[in-house]
Every structure is written in C-alpha cells, then in structure tokens.
C-alpha cells in the first residue's frame, strides 16, 4: 500500500523495438564497412592516376541508405566485406608490380647515351719500342685516330659544351704532328676526362631515377583526399627543381620527408574512416524523432570540422558523445512507449487522463490523471529523463475543500488499492516494473495543484466559469 511510488521499468522488446534496434545496428555496420571500402577505392584511384591500368580498380559494390530495409543493408554490407577481402591484397600486389616496372623503365631511360667504354690496355715502354719499329708511320696515325674516336664516342650526351671543346682540342692535338710520347700523354688525359664525365652522368642518371620514383610517390599522395596539398605541392616543386638542375645526388632527408608525408596521410585516412563511421551514426539520429536534434547537429558539425581539417586522430571522447546522444534517444523512445502503456492502463482502470497525456508525459516528464473514486483528487505521474523510472503521487485540486479529517488519506488509499492492478496492466502492455520505493498512505501531506491540471477539476472549473458568465 502506498501513496507515493517509484518504480524502475523495462520495456519488453516488441516487434517495433526490435526492428528499430536491428535497423540501426545494420546501418552502423554497413556504414563502417562502407567507409573502409571508400578509402580503398580512393587509394586505387590515386595509384591508377599515376600507373594507369597496371593497377586494378576496386568495385563500388552495392549501395544502401539509412532507411533501406535491414535485408538490403545486410546484403550491401556482405558485398562490401567481400570486395575488401578480395581486392585489398590484389591492389597491393598490382601496385608493387607497377612500381617495379616503372623503376626498370626509368633506369633504362636515364642511362647515359653513349656506347659502352672500351679502353685499350696501356702501352708499355717495351711494346712502344716494338711498335715504333714494326708499325709504319701511317698505321700508327690510323691506330691513334681509332682510339681517339672510341674515347669520344663514350663522351655522354649530357656533357657540357666547355667539356666538349676541351676534348675536341685534345683530340685535335693528338691527331696532329706530335711526338709519340706526348700523344700517349694526351690520350691518357682525354681518357680521364671522359671517364669522369661518364661517372658524373651515371650519378645524375641514378639521382634522376630516384627523384622520379619519389615524385611518383608524391603524385599518388596528392590524389588522396586526406593529403596535405600544400605540403605535397611544396615537395613536388622541390623535386622538379632538382630534376631540372640535373642534381647528381638526392638530398639525404628528401626520402624521409616523403615517407613522413605518406605516413601522415595514412593516419588522416584512417581517422577519416572512423569519423565517417561515427558520422553515419549521427545521420541516423538526425532522422530519429526521439533524438535531441540540436545535440545531433552539433556532433555532425564537429565531425565534419575534423574531416575537413584533416584530423589525424579521433578525439577520445567523440565516440562516447555519439553514444550518449544515441542512448538518450533510445531512452526517449522507451519513455514514449511507457507513456503510451500508462495511458492505456489508466484508461482500462477508469482513470481520466489530462489532454495530450502521452505526449506531454514523454516530452515534459510529468502529466496528470484523476482519481475515479476520490472527487477533487488526482494523480501526478512522472517519467525521469536520466533513468528508466516512473513515479506517482496523489495530489488534490486547489479548488477542492477538505470537508473531513482523513479525506486526503482516503484518497491515497484509493490509489493504493489500484496500484497492483496498474502494474499488472503495464506488464500486459509490454512494460515490466520493479518497485524502487513507496510511502504508506497518510505519511506525507497531499500536495495541491491548479484545477487546470486535473482532468475532472478542469471540467468543473470551466463549468463554474461558464455559469458565472451567464448569471
């Protein structure tokens, strides 16, 4: 027996509640997998923009929306998971093949344009004497000319004009009327010059290949939506400048800077996947009438801001904030169901509820009924916002005069008699309750409320005012 009650409640999962729960779970799972697939597609597009058809495309898969059927969402999720499983490794393998092929092509293209060097064995003093004896002057001049031609053929095409002129002067002197000892000295000088030029050209070619490969890696990064485009453009400009200047070496920190930019882009991309999954949850809340729309819109703005600012990490409390708004939406949804169950239960017991009882109770947390067996008395019904609890309190209309001692207690006892039946009716309508506390009749004073709050008292007050106006 009680005049003031408090009870926790559990909403029995009806078909509607189950559908709502499963629909949300299916959408969140789809959105999470879809975000991963979208990232893999973006990665494939970036590589294809550089390597073309050498890199495989990643299929888009089936699409679904938040309001799609659960079956369609589950099919689309399974399709996206299958694409991820089959194409993630295939993409890596095709990219690796394309990179190897590009490296081979660059090394071939950057090789110095010249025939392989073929140096004659140095002529010893003894051999020179033998040649001087056995070879005619004309044959000696012909051999000297052939050797000069071979050396000049090995001069790289990239050699400077100054170097070419110096080599030409040496060649002209060698082929002129000079003594054999000086000719041999000049030939040795020419050979050294051309060897140095060839080695320098090889270093430039190696650097050019390495710079081209780094440039390709940066080109892949720039296509990624998660990339820092200002940093990418700066690196591209630096690399292009080194290539144009025919740098003979790659700056020692350049590869590291490219690697760090790639790693940063990967972190941003990973964070974007997580943020997009959270955003999908918020999108569901924005279509849920039970959700706090202001809080959901604020979360959406925060998430969009993080995505647009290329956040590399998801704030530690963001997922909790989204979960809190979702939990509050679920609680509000259950409050609505409980308010409906209370309205039907009171009606079945002969209680008259205030206007808009169900909506007012769910939204504002408090509504009123009359007490059928106690004229001028009513029941204040409260639904807590922060927990699943319903409370009741017997109240008296402000216009109700107390004619006898114990009348308030009798009104409280009237509700106490109905309370077990009320709980049974609630269970029939899918709401199980557990008593949290109760106060026996007569232990608390009955509070008074405005006549307009109690259904019968409001009608009586309206009738009195009508009669007064017509007197």
Q: What report would you give on this structure?
A:
The protein has 471 residues and is an alpha+beta fold. It has a domain at 333-469. Helix content is 65%, strand content 9%. A hairpin with a 5-residue loop joins strand 3 and strand 4. Helix 1 (15-51) runs antiparallel to helix 8, helix 6 (180-223) packs antiparallel against helix 7 and helix 8 (254-286) runs parallel beside helix 10 (318-348).
Topology at a glance:
Layout (H helix, E strand, L loop, with lengths): L3 E8 L3 H37 L18 H41 L14 H10 L2 H17 L7 H14 L5 H44 L5 H16 L9 H33 L6 H16 L9 H31 L8 H8 L1 E5 L6 E7 L5 E9 L9 H22 L2 E9 L7 E3 L5 H15 L2
Parallel strand pairs: 4-6
Antiparallel strand pairs: 1-4, 1-5, 2-3, 3-4
Helix pairs in contact: 1-2, 1-6, 1-8, 2-6, 4-6, 5-6, 6-7, 6-8, 8-9, 8-10, 10-11
* Approximate shape: rod-shaped
Q: How large, in whole angstroms, is the Cα Rg?
A: 44 Å
Global structural class: alpha+beta
Low-confidence stretches: 114-135, 457-468
Count of DSSP H/I helices: 13
Q: Compute the average pLDDT.
A: 82
Query: How big a fraction of the residues is strand?
Result: 5-15%
State the helical fraction. Answer: 55-70%
* Straight-line distance between termini: 46 Å
**Total E-strand runs:** 6
Order of helices and strands: EHHHHHHHHHHHEEEHEEH
Question: How would you sum up the major sheet?
Answer: 6 strands, mixed
């Amino acid at each position: 027996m009680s005049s003031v009650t408090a009870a926790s409640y559990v909403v029995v999962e009806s078909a509607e509640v189950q559908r709502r729960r499963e629909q949300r779970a299916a959408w969140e799972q789809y959105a999470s997998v879809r975000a991963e697939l979208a990232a893999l597609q973006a990665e494939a597009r970036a590589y294809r923009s550089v390597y073309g058809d050498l890199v495989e495309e990643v299929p888009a898969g089936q699409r679904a929306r938040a309001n799609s059927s659960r079956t369609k969402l589950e099919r689309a999720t399974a399709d996206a998971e299958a694409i991820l499983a089959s194409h993630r490794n295939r993409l890596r393998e095709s990219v690796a093949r394309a990179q190897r092929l590009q490296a081979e092509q660059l090394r071939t293209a950057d090789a110095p344009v010249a025939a392989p060097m073929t140096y004659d064995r140095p002529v010893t003093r003894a051999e020179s004497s033998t040649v001087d004896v056995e070879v005619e002057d004309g044959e000696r001049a012909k051999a000297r000319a052939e050797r000069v031609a071979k050396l000049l053929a090995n001069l790289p095409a990239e050699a400077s004009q100054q170097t070419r002129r110096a080599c030409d002067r040496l060649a002209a002197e060698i082929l002129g009327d000079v003594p054999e000892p000086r000719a041999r000295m000049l030939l040795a000088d020419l050979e050294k010059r051309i060897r140095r030029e060839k080695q320098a050209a090889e270093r430039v070619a190696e650097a050019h290949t390495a710079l081209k490969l780094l440039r390709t890696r940066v080109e892949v990064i720039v296509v990624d939506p998660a990339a820092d485009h200002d940093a990418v453009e700066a690196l591209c400009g630096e690399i292009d400048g080194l290539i144009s200047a025919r740098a003979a070496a790659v700056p020692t920190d350049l590869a590291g800077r490219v690697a760090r930019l790639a790693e940063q882009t990967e972190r941003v991309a990973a964070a974007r996947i997580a943020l997009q999954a959270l955003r999908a949850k918020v999108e569901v809340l924005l279509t849920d009438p039970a959700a706090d729309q202001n809080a959901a819109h604020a979360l959406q703005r925060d998430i969009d801001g993080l995505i647009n600012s290329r956040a590399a990490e998801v704030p530690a409390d963001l997922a909790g904030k989204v979960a809190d708004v979702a939990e509050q939406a679920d609680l509000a949804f259950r409050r609505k169901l409980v308010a409906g169950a209370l309205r039907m239960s009171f009606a079945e017991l002969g209680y008259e509820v205030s206007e808009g009882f169900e909506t007012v109770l769910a939204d504002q947390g408090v509504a009123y009924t009359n007490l059928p067996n106690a004229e001028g008395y009513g029941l204040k019904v409260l639904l807590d916002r922060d927990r699943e609890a319903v409370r009741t309190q017997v109240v008296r209309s402000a216009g109700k005069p107390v004619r006898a001692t114990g009348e308030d207690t009798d009104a409280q006892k009237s509700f106490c008699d109905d309370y077990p039946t009320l709980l049974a009716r609630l269970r029939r309508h899918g709401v199980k309750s557990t008593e949290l506390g109760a106060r026996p009749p007569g232990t608390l004073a009955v509070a008074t409320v405005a006549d307009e709050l109690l259904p019968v008292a409001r009608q009586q007050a309206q009738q009195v005012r009508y009669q007064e106006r017509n007197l």
